[in-house]
Amino acid sequence: AVSAAPRQINLPAPQDHRGRWKHGLPPLCSSLNPLLHGEPLDEERRKTLVSKLRDDLIHFLDTNHLVLSGSSATIRWSYNSLGKALASAYPNMVLDKPGAKPFSRSSGIHGPFIRRLACTRKMRRLRALKAKKDPQQMP
Hints:
The protein is mainly alpha-helical.
């Protein structure tokens, strides 16, 4: 008879990553204060500040070598906890334009922003690796 016991996989629980960002959020520049504190902004200014916030967070993650390796689940949990830490530190922050339809897969208002941050960071890293491999191919 074959045992029907479920396979046990040793993955860290999502709770392990919640405390990582509690005291370690990067210092954000004062020019981001209107975005972080939910002040009314026109669309162009909001997009500029969201891009600046994304670039600052990517720079912080890269310089401190955070969320670089591990299983895809571990990386996803780390980015998710970063989004939750940002949302709890800045509860009035508006990342998407007012009235935007929320993404169905997002676990909160920070979901789409964190997905774009992770995607942008991954593409930058892959382009840098490609440029390092073959510098003549890159424009």
